[in-house]
Amino acid sequence: MPSALPDGEPVPDDGALPESALAGAADRPLGFYLHVPYCATRCGYCDFNTYTATELRGTGGVLASRDNYAETLADEIRLARKVLGDDQRPVRTVFVGGGTPTLLDAGDLVRMLAAVRDEFGLAQDAEVTTEANPESVDPRYLAALREGGFNRISFGMQSARQHVLKVLDRTHTPGRPEACVEEARAAGFEHVNLDLIYGTPGESDDDWRASLDAVLGAGPDHVSAYALIVEEGTQLARRIRRGEVPMTDDDVHADRYLIADEVLSGAGFEWYEVSNWATSEAGRCLHNELYWRGADWWGAGPGAHSHVGGVRWWNVKHPGAYAGALAAGRSPGAGREVLSEEDRRVERILLELRLREGVPLSLLREEGLAAARRALSDGLLQEGPYEEGRAVLTLQGRLLADAVVRDLVD
């Protein structure tokens, strides 16, 4: 979750939504994202809304403390119950992200999940995920999460090479994420993801292949692989600007992506979103699919974003300001926007084209249809789905996904 927030209209103190946002809610899946903004240290590439203990010292007092964060977050979940009113939908997915959620006690994460369950109920087959830093969990912690209702876990691995982790300022030991997969399986987790980053300055093709081989040896059923994006204002951006480390170019990113798809596909993984692969339908991240398909989700926590029925809003960023608003009985919302039908059409194209199922050609305007025909001729869209009325990216199209999307939207 990037740290910068957009502008928008004010959010009412009670968080109330327009009636139009709640119309037809029963027909849409509902998920919850729970943001934990704490980190032990700040990774050099990270631009997320996270805070170390040093960064919070003196800025938020007791309100910004990790010790009472679970209860503070539960206050927003109770606010969500009031705002959504008589909504009878059980929650389909819960995703705890950060930051480093596992800096909190396992019991705190379980209490946050219990607040969602108590206020809304969980679907019988609900997907419940937490992100985890490999160095912040052990078998006892994982067992407590599993007993408390979590059934999916995502470990931040990034790389198997120490020198690559050092550039990223990652603190875990190579080999620890792989061990975490085994520990999570032993604790009873049904689905396990490993997150990778490619294109780090100083990373070679051999380094990247070694990371992929380590992932396959660990045996997760889901892998996310993202190209490194150097965000302005980060420590890594400053190091590149000073010439301490080189910038990786787009051609290298493309080569690494092709290696990833080759290795993962050869091991039984299938891509279902440009940056995500799973060994089965059950292994796909349902929570992220809510985002990509424009469903409803409530994001609780500092800086978290939400979307319900075409209304999108975001919370204040700082943990102290967030907790203070809730303690005063106010919504922590910082701003919101009501999406027009055209906004929602464009967002569907932007997001659904990234999926294996693609986007219906019926969503495209005349210029977008012409662009789709060109993309088909250039080998960027698959012929079979196109004949059936859908735009689905080829492997080459995935490499150029952002450019294809821009053309289809125009």
From TrEMBL:
Q: Which Pfam families match?
A: Radical_SAM
Q: Where is this protein localized, as stated in its record?
A: Cytoplasm
Q: Where is the Radical SAM core domain?
A: 24-270
Please list the GO biological process terms of this entry. Answer: porphyrin-containing compound biosynthetic process
> What InterPro entries would the database entry show?
Coproporphyrinogen-III_oxidase, Elp3/MiaA/NifB-like_rSAM, HemW-like, rSAM, rSAM_horseshoe, rSAM_sf
State the superkingdom: Bacteria
What GO cellular component entries does it have? cytoplasm
Q: Name one GO molecular function term.
A: metal ion binding
Q: Which family does it belong to?
A: Belongs to the anaerobic coproporphyrinogen-III oxidase family. HemW subfamily.
Function field: Probably acts as a heme chaperone, transferring heme to an unknown acceptor. Binds one molecule of heme per monomer, possibly covalently. Binds 1 [4Fe-4S] cluster. The cluster is coordinated with 3 cysteines and an exchangeable S-adenosyl-L-methionine.
Report the protein name in the record: Heme chaperone HemW
Source organism per UniProt: Streptomyces azureus
